[in-house]
Design brief:
Order of helices and strands: EEHHEE
Distance between the termini: 21 Å
Oligomer: single chain
Structural class: alpha+beta
Helix content: 25-40%
Number of strands: 4
CATH superfamily: Hypothetical protein apc22750. Chain B
Low-confidence stretches: none
CATH architecture: 2-Layer Sandwich
Strand order of the largest sheet: 1-3-4-2
Shape: elongated
Strand content: 35-45%
Mean pLDDT: 86
Length: about 110
């Protein structure tokens, strides 16, 4: 990505003037790797973090963020406000991660 876009979790940037462009989002549906799934099944018996799943969700979140920022760049934004992430199960063995926020042009 050539253009730097700032990301904010807040909905308003105090003392800044900006033009609201609109909603931008990025998503990915990621499936579990069979080997990861099998190892996670064993791990649930003894407890603890499922590191393979943590890595998978972190990777999916990064891809969703990049896609959201690409959309914002295409609209001429230089920042995205109110960035939020959601995760949901789409089907057994697959999860969707969505990143969304409000694209703005800070003056």
């Amino acid at each position: 990505m050539a253009t730097k876009i700032d990301i904010y979790s807040v909905d308003i940037i105090p003392n800044k003037e900006y033009e609201v462009i609109g909603l931008v989002k990025g998503s990915i549906v990621q499936s579990k790797h069979f080997g990861r799934d099998l190892m996670a099944s064993f791990k649930t018996i003894i407890g603890g973090e499922l590191k393979g799943y943590t890595e998978m969700i972190n990777e999916a979140r990064a891809i969703a963020t990049d896609r959201m920022l690409e959309e914002a760049t295409a609209l001429g934004a230089n920042a995205v406000l109110g960035v939020t992430y959601t995760t949901s199960a789409v089907m057994q063995g697959a999860s969707e991660v969505i990143a969304y926020g409000t694209a703005v042009k800070i003056k």
